[in-house]
Design a protein that fits this description.
The complex is a heterodimer. Chain A is of the alpha+beta class. Helix content of chain A is 34%, strand content 25%. Chain A is globular and about 35 Å long. Chain B folds into three domains: 4-134, HprK N-terminal domain-like (Udp-n-acetylmuramoylalanyl-d-glutamate--2,6- Diaminopimelate Ligase, Chain: A, domain 1), CATH 3.40.1390; 138-291, Rossmann fold, CATH 3.40.50.300; 293-322. In chain B, 35% of the residues lie in helices and 28% in strands. Chain B contains ten helices and 17 strands. In chain B, strands 14-11-10-8-9-15-17-16 form an eight-stranded mixed beta sheet. Chain B is elongated, with a radius of gyration of 29 Å. Classes of the chains: A alpha+beta, B alpha/beta.
Chain lengths: 91, 322
């Protein structure tokens, strides 16, 4: 199990598009992915779960990855969030 | 550990408990940390061993009759002691108000004292009900909860295995969706768990290939339910040649959620398999078991009886030379 804490960097927080982007990246990994905010933990491969967290800018998220590619998964997903979702930066 | 702000308790249920705050609002900042209630009769009389100071203190007519008749200096000393223990709040039933000094000492220790017009037994009954719900153990699970013929089926399994699609199919057949994806499970009593969805998600679900849909808007109010007791877990797995699946169903597999055991059915998924009908059968079979019928056990008994009878007849026929 690999665990990483990140802060949401994009201005509008994890709204629909960033959530979808996160889920599609998460789904590429074999590991099980979970995302936690304020004690609420959801499946990182489920768009509804991720959106339910309603993570606003600056809020802290914990990424959990468990499986053969957990290190790579946690690092990639943490990067995605902390970089403000690359091209979606201004969304 | 769960906790409840006295302020929230007061604001949410002021009318329900018929409460009036008797002293300053400073006491509203305290926190309630347990669902239990204490009647501090012995503590008032000076016996402080085992005083349950972390609980809500409820005083009734008898306790107040005692408080009102003791000597002033004794009263001050006793109040100092009780509030000095840092109790979360105190409620006095039947609309009785305590002596002014009592209130002032409570103020000094930042403890709120409420008066309730309810009788002591009514007040403690309502309090336990309210506190039990607030302090009930809760977890969130990944899955889908559907009410099938009144039986709460909780679908679990890996993301993308088709839980939402099964729920959609069931809704189409007249069953009711409770929640998809994120299920909040509450243990309402030692052997009962109830599932509900999140406020934000409502009865929305994601169907791969379509996107997000609103089940309530599409299928109407009959297709949804706010909460439902979880009775059976249906665990979906991909069909695998190497895995053994239940063939008889005489032994029941169980799973534990929040310490509550419920039957678990593991259903392998493969193309062309109608999980919706299987789901309905799981629900009906569960109901039969609740009513005392166990199809698998009955059949096994019938088979054993037949074998026994055949053996008897064979013996007779073999020894018959007629």
């Amino acid at each position: 199990m690999t665990q990483k804490t990140v802060k949401v960097a994009n201005r509008l927080g994890m709204h629909a598009r960033p959530s979808a982007m996160f889920v599609s990246h998460a789904s590429k990994f074999k590991s099980e992915i979970f995302l936690e905010k304020d004690g609420l933990k959801v499946n990182g491969k489920s768009i509804m779960g991720v959106m339910m967290l309603a993570a606003e800018m600056g809020s802290e998220l914990i990424i959990y990855a468990d499986g053969e590619d957990e290190k790579d998964a946690a690092a990639t997903l943490a990067d995605l969030i902390s970089s403000g979702f690359g091209d979606l930066k201004n969304l | 550990m769960p906790e409840l702000l006295v302020e929230k308790f007061y604001k949410d249920r002021k009318d329900y408990f018929d409460l009036t705050l008797l002293n300053s609002e400073a006491g509203l900042k305290k926190k309630i940390t347990t669902a239990e209630i204490h009647r501090p009769g012995l503590a008032l009389a000076g016996f402080m061993d085992r005083f349950a100071n972390h609980r809500i203190q409820v005083l009734g007519e008898t306790e107040m009759a005692y408080v009102n008749q003791i000597e002033h200096t004794v009263l001050l000393h006793m109040a100092e002691k009780i509030f000095g223990y840092g109790i979360p709040l105190m409620i006095i039933s039947k609309g009785i108000t305590p002596p002014l000094d009592f209130l002032q000492i409570a103020d000094k220790h930042g403890t709120a004292i409420f008066s309730s017009r309810l009788s002591t037994s009514e007040l403690t009954n309502r309090l336990s009900g309210y506190l039990d719900v607030n302090f009930a153990p809760v977890i969130t699970m990944h899955g889908t909860l559907v009410d099938v013929y009144g039986v709460g089926l909780l679908y679990t399994g890996k993301s993308g295995i088709g839980k939402s699609e099964i729920a959609l199919d069931l809704v189409e057949r007249g069953h009711r969706l409770v929640a998809d994806d994120v299920i909040k499970v509450i243990r309402k009593s030692p052997d009962l768990i109830v599932g509900t969805g999140s406020e934000l998600l409502g009865h929305h679900m994601e169907i791969r290939g379509i996107g997000i849909i609103d089940v309530e808007k599409l299928f109407g109010i009959r297709a949804i339910r706010i909460q439902k007791r979880i009775e059976v877990e249906v665990h979906l797995t991909l069909w695998s040649e190497d895995l053994e699946y239940e063939r008889l169903g005489i032994e029941e597999t169980e799973t534990t959620i929040l310490g509550v055991s419920i039957p678990q059915v593991i259903v392998p998924i493969s193309p062309g398999k109608n999980i919706t009908v299987i789901s309905e059968v799981i629900a009906m079979d569960h109901m039969l078991k609740v009513y005392g019928e166990n199809s698998a056990a009955e059949f096994s008994k019938r088979l054993s009886e037949r074998l026994h009878r055949q053996a008897m007849t064979k013996d007779y026929l073999e020894s018959d030379y007629e």
